[in-house]
Write a structure and sequence with these properties.
The chain has 356 residues and is α/β, with parallel strands linked by helices. It folds into two domains: 116 residues, Leucine Dehydrogenase, chain A, domain 1 (Rossmann fold); 189 residues, Rossmann fold, CATH 3.40.50. The protein contains twelve helices and eleven strands. Strand 10, helix 8 and strand 11 form a beta-alpha-beta unit. Helix 4 crosses helix 10. It is globular, with a radius of gyration of 19 Å. The C terminus is likely disordered. The structure holds nicotinamide-adenine-dinucleotide.
Length: 356
């Protein structure tokens, strides 16, 4: 395992902390990528990684993505992420999450944790027993789950991209393939169906498939059929790396816009998509609704702030797509340039101090 500064996914991360608490059964990695715009905020993923290197690779990539996502979303937060190695269906205990909270507390506020794939607001409540640096908690105004805001941002982005690429002002009859029917994918499918889209979906979890098919009357298909079948929009809402040199030649879609982080396996896959004539909407631009939600709630801001932040995602996407078209470069390149400008500053708003 390459744990040094030469790790292929190392990108000038400020801190990478390995947590090994045998008594609590916790093995985790916390990565703080960049705090230039404020304390790093990002979810805690729990996943049965094959080994520590797979977990490290994931957390390094995810935390860097959070820096870009948070900058582009216009929130005063840096980028970070954490991963717990373990099966979320069987390995969760209060002791494990308390130990995770203690590790986050030891970073003194440089990293603020929230839920992610495999964790929930209930887990965040246990983490909050040992650290104050936690967002996405249940409150009077929210159940703590930011997934509906993420799904709304993705939905608005799909509408925008469909209008941009297909010249359609609505989604009636538009064929959308949703991969992953978890917290975000399910909510996204619901929004799409209620707006007249025709949704096919896949998930490796049979219970999630059954629930979606029963409650939303969508068609469940195999992952292969989902990836290769003819559609207007492909919405990856499972895990990362789904767009790669093997999958891209088989895709039969005009637009890609989904919630999953790190959808491109490599930078070259952006070019592959452009060459295939597929409009790729940068993942960290369209899936920012959740972090906008937890950021504003933690700041004590209103629902109006959250709604305005999530709605702005579609306008931002339109601006990025328009600039990309006029300059003849990809939307991902434009998004990256804009995010890097924002990370460098100067800031209009004061950067918040590291605080509870
Ligand atoms: P989730 O764990 O609730 O759902 C993921 C779903 O994908 C699960 O149902 C899982 O069974 C399924 N899945 C996993 N591998 C699959 C595969 N190969 N094929 C088909 N289905 C597969 O997670 P979520 O919160 O819905 O998040 C989904 C994605 O969006 C993740 O990549 C997450 O990092 C990203 N994301 C989530 C949020 C949020 O607010 N929850 C915000 C931003 C980004």
């Amino acid at each position: 395992m390459n744990t040094s500064f030469t790790h292929p996914e190392f990108a000038d991360h400020e801190r990478v902390v390995f947590v090994n608490d045998k008594a609590a059964g916790l093995q985790a990695v916390i990565a703080v990528h960049n705090t230039q715009r404020g304390p790093a905020i990002g979810g805690c993923r729990m996943w049965p990684y094959e080994n520590v290197d797979a977990a490290l690779t994931d957390v390094l990539r995810l935390s860097r993505g959070m820096t870009y996502k948070n900058a582009l979303a216009g929130i005063n937060s840096g980028g970070g992420k954490s991963v717990i190695i373990g099966d979320p269906r069987t390995a969760k205990t209060p002791a494990l999450f308390r130990a995770m909270g203690a590790a986050i507390e030891s970073l003194g506020g440089r990293y603020i944790v929230a839920e992610d794939s495999g964790t929930s607001p209930t887990d965040m409540a246990v983490i909050a027993e040992t650290t104050t640096h936690v967002a996405g908690l249940e409150s009077d105004s929210s159940n703590g789950d930011p997934s509906p805001s993420t799904a709304l941002g993705v939905f608005l982005s799909i509408r925008e991209a469909v209008s941009f690429r297909l010249g359609r002002s609505d989604l009636l009859g538009v064929r959308v393939h949703v991969q992953g029917l978890g917290k975000v994918g399910f909510e996204l499918a619901k929004l799409l169906v209620s707006n007249g889209a025709v949704v096919n979906a896949s998930d490796i979890n049979d219970d999630n498939c059954r629930r979606a098919s029963d409650e939303l009357s969508i068609r469940i298909v195999s992952n292969d059929e989902l990836l290769t079948g003819n559609c207007d929009v492909f919405a990856p809402c499972a895990l990362g790396g789904v767009l790669n040199e093997w999958s891209i030649p088989t895709l039969n879609t005009s637009v890609i816009a989904g919630a999953a982080n790190n959808q491109l396996l490599t930078q070259e896959d952006d070019l592959r998509l452009a060459n295939a004539g597929i409009l790729y909407c940068p993942d960290y631009l369209v899936n920012a609704g959740g972090v906008i939600d937890v950021y504003h709630r933690r700041q004590g801001n209103s629902q109006e702030n959250i709604d305005a932040g999530v709605t702005a995602i579609a306008d931002r996407l339109n601006s990025v797509l328009t600039e990309a078209q006029s300059r003849g470069i990809s939307p991902a390149q434009v998004a990256q340039e804009r995010a890097e400008d924002l990370i460098r500053g100067p800031q209009n708003d004061p950067i918040p101090t590291v605080a509870a």
